[in-house]
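Teaching note: in complex prediction, the entire set of molecules is handled at once rather than each chain in isolation. The prompt given to students was simply: 'Predict the structure of this complex.' The entities are:
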Amino acid sequence: MDAPDSEFIAQVLQGDVSAFEPLVQKYQPRVFATARRYARRESEVEDIVQEVFIKAFQKLSSYRADAPFEHWLMRVAVRTCYDFLRKHQRNRESALAEITDEEERWLDSVASSPAETPEDGDAAKALVDRLLSSLPPADRMVITLLDIEQKTVKEIAKLTGWSVSLVKVRAFRARAKMRKALESISQEKYL
Amino acid sequence: MNIEQLYRKLIESARSRPADDRVPYAFEGRVMARLKDLPKVDLATLWGRHLWRAAVPFACVALAITLWTRGHEPAPPAPVHAEAHLTALDEVLLAPIAELGLEEATW
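The expected output is the structure of the full assembly:
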């Protein structure tokens, strides 16, 4: 573990709240990046990140130095994002309603040149977000961690607190649902 | 192109976008202000911790009381003779009739 992290943590546990600030400054970019995968509105992203650091502060005494502080913090972040998804489940079906022109153009370019990957990553990301929004929270979490962030099943199990077998089952079902959702968007035109 | 290929291309493209890790200006200041406003003592955690700590002494007290009551059990009551009870019951039930002098009456 980095010496500075352990020093700040020790000071916080002794009652010096201000010693938590360097930890916030160091890890907030990573936590923001994680939160932005699960929330669209910036106000929601900020709420999630704030919640992550408040929980980390309150539970700091449970942190064991057997793994880097960042790993422990990311576990808190992922679980907070999962709680957010569960609380804010919107009408999932409407996510697949009308796709935008950019998303349609992306699908067009893939259909016309299957061997190439189109450069418009923003449209692809928007399409993926649309598909993910149509999934239940647990499935969305697994796909994001497994396929987008390319984490291993074991890492996902540690982050979420789920068993390895549960992660595998969820991943299998979530991918099937994603493909079905993609099919419903693209069926008429491209397949 | 089949759906599997389309799905893989879509995920590859989405992955190529770097994660958005922008932080709003002075965000850490807002977090620290919230932390300083938190109650010093988290009542729920404190309550939970004390409950756990109290569990062991309470278990010991319960065990001690159980052992003490076993060692000081009161003497068993005298055996009850069923016939004596039934006779007494007869006498109580028939007492009003006996007062009226109707024991020998027939219906």
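Point out the following to students. The radius of gyration of chain A is 19 Å. Residues 10 and 19 of chain A are 9 Å apart (CA to CA).
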